[in-house]
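Homework-ish question, so no full write-ups if that breaks the rules, but can someone show me the predicted structure for this set?
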Amino acid sequence: MYPDSLKDVIEGFRYFPGVGEKTAERLAFSILELDEEKVSSFAEALKTAKNKLHPCKICHNLTDKDTCDICANKLRDKTLLCVVEDPKSVFLFERLGTYNGLYHVLDGLISPMDGVNPEDIGIDKLLTRIKDNHFKEIILAVKPSIEGETTSLYIKKILEGLDLTVSKIASGIPMGADMEYIDAMTLERALNDRKNIE
Amino acid sequence: MYPDSLKDVIEGFRYFPGVGEKTAERLAFSILELDEEKVSSFAEALKTAKNKLHPCKICHNLTDKDTCDICANKLRDKTLLCVVEDPKSVFLFERLGTYNGLYHVLDGLISPMDGVNPEDIGIDKLLTRIKDNHFKEIILAVKPSIEGETTSLYIKKILEGLDLTVSKIASGIPMGADMEYIDAMTLERALNDRKNIE
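A: Not a homework solution, just the prediction itself:
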């Protein structure tokens, strides 16, 4: 029904997760409105990124250099390591501008139900890195879900006996949220993790 | 904050209307999960589509050929002309599989408020086409809005005196809609355009 060249673009957009048929069509149609130059530079950017982006050899964060900017930065606090589940999380924390330690990026979370075991998410590399360096604190910053909890507990366990603090970012009611829309698990967690007001 | 090559892809996605920063980031990150081959074929598809797609010289529908498949199809009813506001509408009607006439694609709708006048949307070409052919009926199939109504009325007026029927697709309550969510204008239109039950 569509011209072949349009069909190919629609199909291309469908490769992206979360892009359904209608969205792919809408995006494809909109290339008609874009400058030829923009379409062409976008196409090049896609290929370049796919070729150049790779995990940092130290922390597995996404980089187009040999070592990522964070690992290469001599001003970062080398005693603090924040463990996250994907490269995107690194950028979320970096955006805050307040954390000055290092990161370690896992390849997802442990999920026995889906057959994802510790070795699948690179926990061996995390352990090697921790043993080879002098961190004082490991901050577990994965999402609060069954998989996140399992991963945190597993890491906590394998680090037992090492001379360092293992902490976990707080989970609870998000700022500005309406209490009535908070799910029961979050509410329970917020209640259990309550803090004295000082 | 992001590696340069990733930043370029995010920026590229932002060119597309309706793609905000978060969506652009999500889409850009997901190219890491895609096969290199898919990314590359998508990039090529974008450039090819941008180069090859153009308006059909007869109906202004989108095509990568000289004349679009619909205009080139000898089996279509040459006495029926459906006027739509964009190429996408053609595909929406074609998907139904029940309309067998021809189309004419306008370049949007008349909107004096936005400075869009009849000559801006190619109504002169529509008129020329109608005068040069032997249509029996012109079906106006633009969206029911102030702009759509203005455009329909304008076309109806300039076709006065020609020996043909000018019709307009029905507007009213969509099938399956909950009455309580229907806006007042639609409800009023549905009431005014009521039909006897036969």
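Now go work out the reasoning yourself. Hint: The mean pLDDT of chain B is 92.
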